[in-house]
Specification:
The protein has three helices and four strands; from the N terminus they run αβαβαββ. Helix 1 packs across helix 2. The protein is flat. It is α/β, with parallel strands linked by helices. 44% of the residues lie in helices and 20% in strands. Helix 2 links the parallel strand 1 and strand 2.
């Protein structure tokens, strides 16, 4: 639990560095793994709204949901490419 908490606080700090604030939205896309859990709780600590997507979601679905939610960050597998106006990162 200490490792998960440390990762969550580190991710919350990273969100702050990126200028992602309370109420902003981020997309979490990918298989469930420790990094996903840490990112989820880090976002919760920061007051950021998490939009989880299934690992099978296509790029078109991610782009559509990103646009509908005005997500500021798409976080998922390393091969993700930033959507227009959004940042992408890997879990």
């Amino acid at each position: 639990y200490a490792e998960v908490a440390a990762g969550a606080y580190a991710f919350a700090r990273r969100l702050a560095e990126l200028g992602i604030a309370k109420g902003d939205k981020i997309i979490l896309h990918g298989e469930s793994r420790p990094g996903w859990v840490m990112a989820f709780w880090g976002a919760v600590l920061r007051g950021v709204v998490v939009v989880p997507l299934e690992p099978s979601s296509s790029a078109a679905v991610i782009e559509k949901i990103g646009g509908l939610t005005a997500a500021k960050l798409v976080l998922g597998n390393a091969e993700l490419v930033p959507l227009e106006g959004q940042r992408a990162g890997a879990l």
